[in-house]
Amino acid sequence: MSGDSFNWHEFLGRWQDEWVPRADEGEDDGGQTAVRLGRPGAAESAIAAAEERLGRRLPPSYREFLAVSDGWHVDQTAGIYWLGGVAEIGWFGDPFDMTPLYEESLGDDPREEEVLLAGMWRRALRLETDSDMSYALLDPGDTDQDGEWALYVYKGWGGEYPDRYPSFRAYLEAMYRGFHSDRAQRADFVNATALAQDAHVEEARLLALRGRYEEALSLLEEALSFGRPHSAVLLNQLRHLLDPRNSRDYGNLVADPRYLPEILPVQAMAPARGEWRLGGDEHWLGMMAARGAARETVETVLGAMRDGVHRYTPPGPWGRAVSEAREAAGWGATDAAWRMLRDALPLWEAPGPSLITPIGLLADPVLGALITPERGREILATPRSGEAGPDPEPVPDLDPPGLVWLTEPAADRRPLDGYRGVWVEGIDPARLPALLGEEGAELSVPADPREASRRAPQPHEREGVELWEDRAVVAVGRTAEGWAFAFDGDSRPMSQLFSSPAAAASASGRAVVVWRDPRSSSPGGRPAAFHLSVAEQGEELYAFTVRGTQIERSGAIPEALDPALLFRPEGSELDGELRVLEALHAELGLSLPRFALTRGRLRTFTTRSWTRAPREGEGFAYAYVGFGRRRP
Questions:
Q1: Best label site of 120, 274, 365, 532, fewest CB within 10 Å?
Q2: What are phi and psi of 392, to 5 degrees?
Q3: What ranges in 226-315 are assigned the alpha helix state H?
Q4: Dihedral sign for Cα atoms in the order 255, 256, 257, 260
Q5: Could you tell me which of 335, 344, 505 has the C-alpha nearest to residue 426?
Q6: Dihedral angle at the C-alpha atoms of 599, 600, 604, 609, nearest 10 degrees?
Q7: What is the rounded average pLDDT of the residues 88-93?
Q8: Average pLDDT for residues 540-545, to the nearest whole number?
Q9: Would you say residue 1 has pLDDT above 80?
């Protein structure tokens, strides 16, 4: 950083003119301006004499500062209070023997910044003369292309790594922003700098609504560093949509009925997921109540979020689009749902000046899962609430066609191992529980399909369920080609007692059953298996089961699905699986929505058993070992 274009006289003079005590300080007897922050500048000869004493030329920005003010009253809360002048500065000399401690933690392949920090303690020039066990240290070994030395602030009472600033000027500018931030809540703290930052906040609000969120981010980040009101809540909305999985705080917006429907559910996301660690639910409920939200309302919202029944229901045309998108996503059409939301985004209306995004989307259990960081950026880049601007480039759809994705890793999970599914042509997915479900089966509220399967009770945990039974928890939806599906992505091993549900599912149309059972990991264990059965009007048309190299088949199997052609002896298990999945898509039009099944929310129900009762002379084995299995 070069100091050539920086006006130290103007900068320090503005700081002095704006100075008032912090809210926790009393004013001096002489009034607010009694405190002199600086001293007359040092003469060039005095600076040169100090450099001769130290044996080094001082870095440019610090040298220029000294010529304007020979020291400065920083008044950093619990930190540095006074920076000395040319006669007071001196080498630190590592009096506390910090160097060995930092060198020991370097490891075998340390980063450059770690090496610089370890050597800083013995090289550094100490600037502060009054502090709270804190040290301002300029390091001549950590320099940039302009000859500036990095400045480290070490708070000895904190036990943390020092804060690093790239130069003395960068440090003092940060302290000036801190001076403003410490006093931003004072009603009498009115000056040109604060007014300019408030104007930047309003400018950023309008830019954000016009889709120019990157410009808005920059303005809001600067305004927040000055502690300006409203900057944090606007900035957090942008940051939240850029990183939807991390929680953000929205302060007292929950107290305003205009914002509560959007903000309170978003604030409840962390405690609803069990991620609130500071005193549990009671502490969070109390905090929301202290911010002005009615406790009964807070409890109701938290309960709805935890039960997965909260719904984001904004008013007007945007609200109607949200409702339609939720219906589509709830049956697996997440890309179509996103396109509905994207097309309707310009119709979103801000309920007041403190809201610049439809942040409430994130709290909806169905729609919130759709908002990836890429889609969050698309939301932010879309003009809305009556403002104009260019439309962003649409984010590509996320669901691949067909079934081959079942063999591929998901974004943050392993590939599906054992899986099974039923497809029924031309029916409403809501009818599947009647065709396949256990007695009394009903569709659940939308939930994470794999989590629902893992949480399901085992046969020995359910009264009236035989140990040989294999009742699956399946996710329900509709494919792009119009098939209703029921899918279990965490299936148990295929039993010799397996009985295909294809015939029962085909009472009113064609039904297809697929089960992929991986090879047992134990030596000499069962081989991998793949089953396909197709039925229509209650009668099985054809079926095959491949176990290792053995093929069982029945009915007139189309050539395109002939297991002898798909599962070739010279190929691997994966090769055969890929070929049959491709053939099922090409021949029958089968597909599955990857996003909804791996990252979204779908309705679920429990099926009847996929295994039949053992006949005379047949046996079965049942074993269950649970390790840290979670329960609702």
A1: 274
A2: -75, 165
A3: 231-242, 260-267, 269-272, 280-290, 295-307
A4: negative
A5: 505
A6: -20
A7: 96
A8: 96
A9: no
Q: SS in 3 state form for 304-351?
A: HHHHCCCCCCCCHHHHHHHHHHHHHHHCCCHHHHHHHHHHHHHHCCCC
294-311 pLDDT, tens digit per residue, is: 999 999 999 999 999 999
112 CB contacts (<8 Å, ≥6 apart)? none
Whole-number pLDDT of residue 426: 92
Structure tokens at 356: 């610049």
Of the candidates 474, 259, 249, the residue with the CA atom closest to the CA atom of residue 356: 259
What is the rounded distance in angstroms from the CA atom of residue 441 to the CA atom of residue 607? Answer: 8
The per-residue pLDDT for range 572-593, each reduced to its tens digit, is 778 889 999 999 999 999 999 9
Q: Token pair for residue 613?
A: 């009762």
Question: Is-contact 581 407, C-beta < 8 A?
Answer: yes
Here the tokens at position 277 are 């660690």
Alpha carbon distance 422, 609 (integer Å):
13
Q: Any residues with CB less than 8 A from the CB of 215 and at least 6 apart, and which?
A: 204, 207
pLDDT digits (tens, 9 = 90+) for 9-42: 999 999 999 999 877 665 554 444 468 999 999 9
Residue 449, CA distances (Å) to 230, 321, 455, 617 in order: 39, 25, 10, 37
Q: Give residue-wise pLDDT tens across range 351-393.
A: 999 999 999 999 999 999 999 999 999 999 999 999 999 999 9
Rounded Cα gap, residues 431 and 351, in angstroms: 40
- Which residue, among 77, 41, 85, 283, has the nearest Cα to 178 in the 3D structure? 77
Rounded to an integer, what distance in angstroms lies between the CA atom of residue 294 and that of residue 14? 44
Are 149 and 143 in contact by the 8 Å Cβ rule? The answer is yes
Which tokens in the block code for residue 296? 């009964």
CA distances from 360 to 339, 440, 571 (A): 18, 35, 50
pLDDT at position 627 over 50:
no
pLDDT of the residue at 522: 56
3-state secondary structure 598-621: HCCCEEEEEEEECECCCCCCCCCC
* The pLDDT value given to residue 2: 44
Cα–Cα distances in angstroms (integers) from residue 145 to residues 59, 129, 405, in the given order: 11, 29, 50
Please name the residue that has the structure tokens 């100490």. 126
3-state percent breakdown (helix, strand, coil) of the chain, nearest 5: 40, 15, 45
What region, left, alpha or beta, does residue 488 occupy, with left being phi > 0 and alpha being psi -120 to 50 degrees?
beta
Contact (Cβ atoms closer than 8 angstroms) between residue 608 and residue 436: yes
**In angstroms, rounded to a whole number, what is the distance separating the alpha carbons of residues 255 and 290?**
9
End-to-end CA distance of the chain: 56
Contacts of 266 (CB under 8 A, 6+ apart): 240, 248, 250, 359, 360, 362, 363
**Dihedral angle computed from the Cα positions of residues 200, 205, 206 and 209, in that order, rounded to the nearest 10 degrees:** 150
Strand ranges (E), 496-591: 511-517, 529-536, 539-547, 550-555
* Separation between Cα atoms, residue 436 and residue 422, nearest integer Å: 9
Instruction: Report the largest interatomic distance among the alpha carbons of the chain, rounded to a whole angstrom.
Output: 108
For 121, the token pair is 């303690």
Q: Which two tokens stand for residue 84?
A: 């000395």
Q: Is the pLDDT of residue 554 over 50?
A: yes
Q: Is the separation of the CB atoms in 569 and 550 below 8 Å?
A: no
pLDDT of residue 25: 66
